[in-house]
Design brief:
The structure holds 2 protein chains of 2 kinds. In chain A, 66% of the residues lie in helices and 0% in strands. Chain A is mainly alpha-helical. Chain B is built from 7 helices and no strands. The longest helix of chain B is centred in the middle third of the chain and has 36 residues. Chain B is rod-shaped. The model of chain B has no long low-confidence stretch (mean pLDDT 80). Classes of the chains: A mainly alpha, B mainly alpha. Chains A and B meet through helix 2, helix 3, helix 5, helix 6 and helix 8 of A and helix 1, helix 3 and helix 4 of B. The structure holds zinc ion (ZN). The site of zinc ion has 6 residues of chain B, from helix 1 and helix 3.
């Protein structure tokens, strides 16, 4: 969306205009839902709805220091984390790296149905503390900066998490046989 | 770590690899079926991870329904004004019609009302039964006119 239109849109939303809000929701719903899916898994719908509610309540605090989309995605990320911690969804993998590949594991609760089996397998092998960063990084078009802004992590930490996550993914893919060998 | 592992690390994670190392790793993947398959699987995973699928049907409507947007609330708060001024408007029409009908059927009603009001202005404490009726009527007309103006004010404010 061009910046000028976005400014107008934000002004309209701040004024409480119904039409402006509809446009904002329709512009960001897919990305907000995607972030919610990656972080909150089966609670994505609630997390995404709550995100727009929080955007509604705190839009007055948006001062344009970051891109508006980044600000919205950060709200989505934080809201999803809150919902996960409130509901106690399993994000830790008790079997760690040694979980049998391909079989249903506790992490399937948070790995979205939209991925193919091969990707689910690869993701299941990533240590949970690194997986979200990896998913957000790709979702955000491989931007270290935006991933760091949304997760409130230093860029160096994002890079470290990504490196470890990719390494886990590679190891799992190799051992799972999805790459066509054993 | 065997050679394949080393080459894969360079291909997938090699942010710090030199151009020579990258070229060597690519040359290896072109020769090694296992590494080539792994590079493909990794690329497929990256592609899926980057895919943004659509939010479920009706999601935007559900969001809009739960947002406490101020507009419907504002309209609600004006509703009582609408009712009051509407009622006053209707009353003014009925009352006006009644006065006109009385004046036509018996012109002395008008001069009687003027006499009543004059008597009331001269001595507000001592009004008779017929003067009380006139004053009630005039007050009702004033309320009706005030209501009509209030109604216009509301319209211009919106
Ligand atoms: Zn190889």
């Amino acid at each position: 969306m061009p910046v000028k239109d976005e400014k107008k849109l934000i002004e309209g939303c701040k004024a409480g205009e119904q039409e402006a809000w509809r446009e904002l929701v329709e512009t960001y719903r897919d990305m907000v839902f995607a972030v919610a899916r990656r972080v909150a898994g089966p609670s994505a719908e609630d997390a995404a709805q709550e995100t727009f509610f929080r955007v509604f309540k705190s839009l007055g605090n948006f001062r344009g220091e970051s891109k508006f989309s980044t600000w919205v995605y950060r709200v989505a990320y934080n809201t999803s984390l809150d919902i996960v911690s409130k509901r106690g969804i399993v994000t830790e993998n008790p079997d760690g790296f040694e979980q049998p590949y391909g079989g249903p594991g506790p992490d399937d609760l948070t790995i979205s149905a939209e991925y193919s089996e091969a990707v689910k397998t690869a993701l299941a092998g990533i240590r949970p503390e690194y997986r979200t960063v990896l998913e957000l990084y790709y979702l955000l078009g491989k931007s270290y900066k935006e991933t760091a802004e949304i997760t409130n992590m230093p860029i160096g930490t994002v890079k470290t998490h990504l490196h470890r996550a990719k390494k886990d993914m590679l190891k799992t893919l190799r051992r799972s046989g999805v790459a066509g060998f054993h | 770590m065997n050679k394949c592992d080393e080459f894969m690390e360079i291909l997938v994670l090699g942010e710090d690899a030199t151009p020579e190392e990258k070229t060597a790793a690519e040359a290896h993947a072109a020769e090694c079926a296992e590494c080539a398959a792994l590079v493909n699987a990794f690329a497929q995973a990256e592609g899926e991870l980057a895919t943004v699928s659509e939010a479920p049907n009706g999601f935007a409507d559900r969001v809009m329904d739960q947002l406490p947007l101020p507009e419907p609330a504002r309209r609600e708060s004006w509703t009582p004004m609408w009712v009051i001024s509407g009622a006053a408007y209707a009353f003014a029409a009925v009352f006006g019609g009644l006065v006109i009908w009385l004046a036509f059927s018996d012109p002395s009603v008008i001069s009687g009302a003027v006499n009543d009001l004059t008597a009331f202005a001269a001595s507000p404490g001592a009004i008779g039964y017929s003067a009380f009726g006139t004053i009630t009527g005039v007050s009702a007309a004033v309320v009706a006119v005030a209501g009509y103006f209030a109604y216009n004010l509301v319209l211009s404010a919106e």
